[in-house]
Amino acid sequence: MKKLINLTINDQHYEVAVEPNQTLVDLLRYQLGLTGTKKGCEMGDCGSCTVILDGKAVNSCLVLALQADGRSIQTIEGLETGEGLHPVQEAFVEKGAIQCGFCSSGMILSAKNLLDQKSNPSEIEIRRALAGNLCRCTGYQKIIEAVKSVPQAN
Amino acid sequence: MSEYTVINSRAVRVDTPDKATGKAVFIDDMTMPGMLYGALLQSPLAHARIVSIDTSKARNLPGVKSVVTAAEAGLVKYGVSPARYDETLFCHEKVRYVGDDIAAVAAVDMETALKAVSLIEVEYEELPAVFTIEEAMKAGAPVLHDNYPGNICAEVHSEFGNVEEALADCDLIKTTTFQNKRQDAAFIEPQGCIASYDLSGNLTLYSSTQVPHYVQRTVAMVLKLPVGKVRVVKPYVGAGFGIKASANPLELSACLLSMKTGKPVKMNYNREQVFQYGRARHQFTHTMTTGVKKDGTIMALKHLCYLDGGAYSSFGIATVYYAGSLLGGPYKLPNMKYDGYRIYNNKPACGAMRGHGGVAARACWEQQLDMIAEELKISPIELRLKNMMVAGDVTCNDLNMSSLGMKECIEAVKDGSEWTAKKGKLPKGKGIGMACGFFVSGAGYPIYRSDTFHGTVIVKLTEDGGTALVYTASAEIGQGSDTTFAMIAAEALGIRLEDVRLESGDTDFGVDLGAYSSRQTLMTGHAVKEAAEDARRQVLEVLAKELNVPVENMDIKNSLIEFKQGNVDFTGLRTRYSKEHRGWNDNPADGPLTFREASRIAYLSKGSIVGTGKYKPPELGGKYKGATVGTSPAYGCSAQIAEVTVDEETGQITVDRITDAHDCGLAINVTSVEGQMEGSVSMGLGEALFEEVKFDKKGHVINADLAEYKIPTMLDMPQIKTIIVESNEPNGPFGAKEVGEGAIMPTIPAILNAVYDAIGVRIHELPMTPERVYLAIQEAKKGKTG
Ligand code: FES
Ligand code: FES
Hints:
- The structure holds two protein chains of two kinds.
- Chain A is α+β, with helices and mostly antiparallel strands.
- Chain A contains five helices and five strands.
């Protein structure tokens, strides 16, 4: 039995009917066409499906769509502004932190979430915050460089 | 300062803004109108005879559009090496591993497709199964493939020089046995595809592949379609590392189902199926005997290797050859004997993975060389330098080191890691170790015997606007090849990178053998360069006529035409250009003649300007059996130094730092070269410390997920110091050669040697889990006291 839920995604309000066993990642990707959120394992192991849910980075494959009812979500599509790339996106592009790009949406959102909560994080803080996002291509070095290079507000 | 304007820089990759914003389209992001969803029925048993298959219940399920088995698919054999095609799309007589494909279903949605799969009734007669090399080779063991008695999938025997004679003259002979474990590539994007068959009989397959060309041929062959009716298109791919370098059952099933239904059919592996399909690194057991003179001169290597192959050949024939041939260098080795066996058993097939065939062999030998150096009281670096080949040397098995910055790499890591200050001076529990390696810069021959070009490229100039369109069937899978080729095209044509638009990964663009064997930079790069130069020549020839200036007196740079001698009056051309663009307010008014104007004038004179390029290596290698495997127009090489901490109480290894130098010829894109080096190190570190695909007694993968199969996270990776050593490769475009796989070669042995330096115990089996290291330490202690 489908159920109607209300949620905000990238500042836009949605009312959608979802199955009780439907995951948030599937809702985003297959029902709403927000395919920037990736799906690498569906078991909470890889982090490619990371979205920001009420200010927290979560694996959207582990969240039921129903659980997102009434909540606010930011996906990779919501990062760009009228002025162009978000500074974290810019840093990833500039530093060569993206290879195949399959981990990048999740990685960038985890990095953004970290920087939102803590300006000028130390290297170990970056490593801890992003340890749930697997990348098989880069060896992480340029990702860390990118996160470190993001201009900080203060 | 580089003599180049575009290449040899840190140009930002052309694909990354899209990837950073989630706009880049990967296979699972695609949908098509009326698309059906496909699912596979895969064997739950490792070895069984198929008595009967009843698909009637599945067919009758509402929403099911097609069910196919071997009866519909036919029995055309396929695989990787034509000499060893040993798979059919679906099993017909028996299944050979848990996950072997039996049937496929297309339905209106995934749920229905999966339900239908569960309704297919298969009656099996279970057969005894073999899961290890020992079991498979035992007398009377069950045989997987009737035409391969003893389960020997392939064997290789080669000798260069005379090993026994040479060993008899050696002062020190060392024998060790080493084993790695079956690895998974663990790319983050599972394989997927969409096949679409149209009413005119054209089949288009969108697939997350590294090799559109080989997939095109395999699909055509297996489904009996003319090759010209099959088009394979690669969207962005979430990496492959070798596993996506051949056609898979998903692709073939989706194509067949689309042909049956006339609708697009989408299919995906889930993560468990990725592991179950396998095709990644083999488990190798190497026994090597090396003989040296007192002064450290390496005289001979006797090498025996067994590969745990799994149920089918896949790339395995090449793998078993590579495991031997890639020890021919980079050290001078006058005598080498190799006996290699690849053994079938009832596990998923192994195939090619980054550093194909050479990684475990390199680990075994580089550790052994350190043991020899220690016994001879020579430093490991000195031993290596003493025996190192130089550019122009040819190995005993006929591999030509046309450029080899190996010594420079060693010096670079030695300085970069402060080796001299550290070696022998670190506290107990801390260690430093080094190793070298090299790899082909593109396989010298295609996988199927052929006189084909390895790459063809078209550069077409837009009829207006001064943009160069580059069409290549090569495969961007994350390594950055699109950017590399756009840069090469821009450089060769003389225009800015932003004036190039590149499309790749589509078999309609030409032939390209794809992203494997680290071939694209050199091979596709050559073809891109030639095509761009062809287009450039055509533009200049028109200008020469129009302006009465010889072609040699003109150049194109930064999208501007340069005249080498005197003032050339081109106002007539400029006026013509402006007249064609009346009302435009950005027509060039003064300053040098632009490429935009020149290419328009060229079009007006000749019609569309299309430059073509192609590349095929010259005939390479010796005449002996298997001489083709290991040949390449060039070889990349590298040296690494690892620094580790080992907790002797727990056996826990932490890699603290890696210093990595790689000779990639001329670095086309410096950032991308570093990216390949860093990625290689992380994969090597994972294999050294954590990675092993494990099975239960019935042949099921028991760690088929990314939690239990552990790959390095950001917390596991040390600081990597990358140093690019640039030799000038005579056979490479602009002097460039590989980096993607050579860079992984030294990682494992550098860590092995560092671990020994830290604890004084040699580990000869991977992965170096805390348990294995702890037990080795205890064993060594016992040995000392007992
Ligand atoms: S898809 Fe959600 S963590 Fe991997
Ligand atoms: S860039 Fe490929 S997984 Fe991270």
